[in-house]
Amino acid sequence: xxHEIGVLSLYEGFFRGGARILxxxxxxxxxxxxxxxxxxxxxxxxxREATFQWMQDDPCYRKLVAAGVQVxxxxxxxxxxxxxxxxxxxxAVSxxxxxxxHELSVVEYExxxxxVMLTLKEQPLRLVNQAGLSGxxxxxxxxxxxxxxxxxxxxxRTAVAAGRIAALICCAESARTAYRDAGIPDGLLHxxxxxxxxxxxxPDPRARARMRRSFAIRADAPVIAFAAxxxxxxxxxxxxxxxxxxxxAHPAAHVLMCGTxxxxxxxxxxxxxxxxxxxxxxxxxxxxxxxxxxREDPQVLYAAADVVALTSAFxxxxxxxxxxxxxxxxxxxxxxxxDCASIVDGRGLLAEPDAEAVAAxxxxxxxxxxxxxxxxxxxxxxxxxxxxxxxxxxxxxRTSGVGARPLPIPLLEAVA
Length: 416
Hints:
single chain; alpha/beta; seven-stranded parallel beta sheet; six-stranded parallel beta sheet; 15 strands; disordered C terminus
């Protein structure tokens, strides 16, 4: 009987974002098909983007558990030092970076049952390093700014120097270049581009009509979608300044904003709306701006949109929102960060980080929608998750030391 590879994934916590969505897709695609996956999250609760986020409430947690993946937390979230503060940068962690003997014994026990460990980004490596785990460790890198993540880069360097890192998976060429430039050995860096479930993310005229009706948006009205958590890297002020200019030129247009912190309960977002001239009386805003908060059906949002926008200032590698949005038929318009140029090439537009330029690019995307739609349809297969999951499977298998064998046919069929 062939050996089933045991894989332990280490997370900083469960909070909404593209990296966790993608990692969840990978684990559920591989679990039970020659691999046995488990997840250990350092934190059971986080506070970020003006929102408390409990592990058990997270869609990724529920999807993993439903697929039979065991998920547990090292810290349950009751103590003050177990939550993030959303006033600090996206990848900063709480000041309490020292793990006690009980926590170290838990991770030692969990890792002893695994043939290979995965870490979602480099932040959990502080736990790996303090525990003195020997590996093999595969770290998944989802950003293009290693120098802008507090102590995480130094933790990665420490793990590399100790021989714990067997491979580093970069979701984009820009990530590989950035980490190589930061001194990480090129031989450890492997690019596996992001992919999505093409059965879920596809043009859907019925969902489009239903979503528009629910917000009293005309069938022919221009709609801009923005899916992002409220974070400095996403440059929400630029997006809203662009939206103000676009709405002034297109009075029938609407803007759909979803993601953690994208609610009227976020005072910083309300300040941004006011600064962009989109606020009305205190606590209200232009009714054409729809603040939808976190959603578990982003494909419906994208299907209803004509343009999927990204205005990030830094940090992005291969933004999942652009890929998901354009697979649903929305034309991608992005600033030139990470691999955005190659993602939108021939299928959408890049825009300078200026409100006038961004608004003009949205208008151009609408005018050229027929042209871009044909290009999107012709390249859908390139953005599917089949190849991505197959490559993760191969790298995990090779890293674990278990002999390579063909990817099971049912998996190939399941991840189209």
